[in-house]
Specification:
Layout: H1 24-32, H2 40-48, H3 52-63, H4 67-95, E1 110-116, H5 122-135, E2 140-146, H6 159-162, H7 164-167, E3 172-178, H8 190-199, E4 204-208, H9 217-220, E5 225-230, H10 243-248, E6 251-254, H11 262-276, E7 289-292, H12 301-318, H13 320-347, H14 349-364, H15 369-381
Parallel strand pairs: 1-4, 1-5, 2-3, 2-4, 5-6, 6-7
Length: 384
Amino acid sequence: MTKPPIKSALNIMDGIEQPPQINEVAAKIIRSHKIRLLTSQEYLDGIFSGNRTILSKAITLIESNLPAHQAQGQEIIAECLKRMTSDELQVTSDKLQITNYVAPMPGKSIRIGITGVPGVGKSTFIEALGIYLTAKGHKLAVLAIDPSSSRSKGSILGDKTRMEELSVNPYAFIRPSPAAGSLGGVARKTRETIVLCEAAGFDVIFIETVGVGQSETTVHSMVDFFLLLMLAGAGDELQGIKRGIIEMADAIIINKADGDNLPKAKIARVEYANALHLFPPPGSGWTPVADICSSRSKMGIDHVWELIMEHHRITSETGFFNRRRMEQNLQVFRETIEAGLHQHFFTRKEISRVITTMEQEIMKGTENPYQAAQKLLDQYFRKF
């Protein structure tokens, strides 16, 4: 005799069968149509023809940490430098005596570093100056270095949203890149990105940095003109910036000099000009200046560009421009060696196997950090 089913207030429904999280049909189609990677020649043809999509892909390639991407990126950089050097020498041999020619670093662009305290209006200033330059027929590349989170390593990359008009300008190219914790907020591959932009025909390149700090010397080491933006009426005008930044600046521009802030900006200009006179003159032959502008009303924007061009003229006549470019080449040489050694050390299997254990021992206090580092270095160099 079968027992009747037990009655309960709880009725369990079978429910609705959930669909799979991955659409297998779509995944199969994607796997059957793998994205074809561009060859180095296709990258080069696109870059030199001014194709912005290819240029963006090339920049992404050199920013990659994959060994295969890095190798192809270096091949592209080398070819860009080779072609630009060849073109420069050809133009010179047609117009000047080749024996009197001192070749600058490949690329005919003017590189301008722009930094300033947070909230000074760097993006607004860059857009105002950029619109002015493109209207005069220049091609502008803006390398906006975006701060990265020290925790997530992520970046907002919102510079294009802050430069609404310039971002749709056909003669301007804006590339926001994450700082990724690199020194001074400068992306690790900014120097290579400059070469690619020059090869694509951009004759003015802005490098917008994260903010003011001692590590801004990294920006200074890769540009021809270093511009420091400041505000007036924000307390002691000479506080909040470091002496080294003022010493490096080729021009100090007090931004937002409009409305009720204009008188304060004029006073700040005098104070900064007096401060600049306290420093020894640079070896470039250029005397750093302090001036005012308003990115909102465009007042003084044209004068800022005149200052930059006057600096370029003077440093070219004194030979400082070419000499500085060569010094930058030497710095690239040294930094590339340092980066290569760093990467090679941490990617060695015998090192990666031991380093985690040593880090744990250091955290426990059972290992001296100096001795632990020396042990790893000894182990590394014994392999050679």
